[in-house]
Amino acid sequence: MVTGTVKWYNEQKGYGFIQPDAGGKDVFVHVTAVQRAGLNSLADGQKISYELETDRRTGRESAVNLQVQ
């Protein structure tokens, strides 16, 4: 699992971005991943661990299997 900090999350738009602790580009996180983790929302600055998943259609990576630290 990778760890990072929620850069921002917009509950109304249903997505946000996580800044990886190891550096590199920000990781997209969708509301469905948040809900699957049993969470209602994410808070800016919240520490989180996650796995990366590549979308088969777009080739873009997103965070899944979220766990609050």
Task: Summarize it.
The chain is mainly beta and 69 residues long.
Can you summarize the main beta sheet? 5 strands, antiparallel
Helix content: under 10%
Distance between the termini: 12 Å
Fourth CATH level, the homologous superfamily of the domain at 1-19 and 40-68: Nucleic acid-binding proteins
Q: Find the structural class using helix and strand composition.
A: mainly beta
Strand content: over 45%
Number of strands: 5
Q: What would the principal axes of the Cα set say about the shape? A: globular
Question: Helix and strand succession?
Answer: EEEHEE
Mean pLDDT: 96
Question: Could you name the CATH class of the domain at 1-19 and 40-68?
Answer: Mainly Beta
Q: Give the oligomer, counting copies of the same chain as homo and different chains as hetero.
A: single chain
CATH topology of the domain at 1-19 and 40-68: OB fold (Dihydrolipoamide Acetyltransferase, E2P)
**Which residues sit in consecutive blocks of at least 5 with pLDDT less than 50?**
none
